[in-house]
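INTERNAL AUDIT FORM
Audit reference: QA-55
Scope: verify that the stored structure record matches its stored sequence.
Auditor: D.O.
Record contents follow.
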Amino acid sequence: MIARALYSALFYLVTPAVLLRLWWRARKQPEYLQHVGERYGLYPQDAPDKLIWLHAVSVGETRAAEPLIMALLSEWPKHHLLLTHMTPTGRETGAMYVNRYPGRVTQAYLPYDLPDGVEHFFKHFRPLIGLLMETELWPNLIAGAGKCNVPIALVNARLSASSQRGYQRFSYLAKPAFASLSFVSAQTVADAARLVQLGASSVTVTGNLKFDVTPSPDKLQLGAQWRQALGRRPVWLAASTREGEEALILDALAHINRSDLLLLLVPRHPQRFAEVAALVEERKLSLCRRSEGALVTPETRVWLGDSMGEMPAYYAVADLALIGGSLLPFGGQNLIEAAACGCPVLVGPHTFNFAQATEDAIACGAARRIADAEGAAVEVAKLLSDGEALQSMRDAAASFSQAHRGATERTIALIREITAPRTAD
């Protein structure tokens, strides 16, 4: 209690810096200055009755939550869903559920972890249960839920060894929060073991919800149309790249002796699209931007995927993909979506965010690991000249994706068991 009081006092003290950071980020994404009141628990919209609350912090978590959202709305047809986020891109991604299920899904920002903001949040929305995606755990939020008798669960939970060490440094705050969770559905056995060590008591391995995400047929069809227009031209996709990686990839491209090779470059964060375009232009490579609408020409060397929500189309058009965030120590992005689209992948040395999925994909032949960008260039050249090997990887990717499905059903079973009295009609 004392530790949380000190934590709260410190959070209040740094509030001016938090607001300054919002303003700073709004220079590239003006949306950060929208709905600021919600970040402090002030909500203008009315709250529907019978709310099931799901928190998905940003884009990745919001997309991964799709099968769970569909299952929740199907399992409890008389209830509404409150979907909260922390980033504008997460909120933008979540808007598709509002449009798909009119009248049943409400969106808002989760407040910062300040006692009064958290209190306003629970008093306003009065959720029956709360589901936090992956690792979004805050001491005052968990304590506030306990005060209001709202059971909280961590779903699709993952925890790397480095994140575990970070929580352990603040165990006086983390352990009470983990111990207060009604249940945890973990992605892997290793995740479950780390969560138990941090104080979580009811932990079940349910698998990764991302395997249950079905790529949009419309986006797959779009990718197929692009492929038809490009003919036999090979496409190397660099998917969800992070700061510093694009320069390495562009330099490696020069070492591939394929003048017909098209590099499809898709940065992870939209605020970096212009920055990455400048990197391409600096190297005097012919550039086409997806946002401009035109398809690439035979002279185009780099196609910049500066759009949102089209990753399945990019995977569908690609011959193989390098997963971003893995060349430099960011931990890697999600390779599961690539597998679901039947796209072979390369991963760099840094894949701790999806360690188990990556190792499983490599083991079954759906993915290959490379040491650096130069190694990626060598592997790309090798695979593009070996159609049989590429097809084998495609087949392995599809099998890998199918074999790991079922996490949604197992997670819903846990929710049903723990919260049946609260969600009864």
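Auditor finding: record pair retrieved intact. The mean pLDDT is 94.
Action required: none
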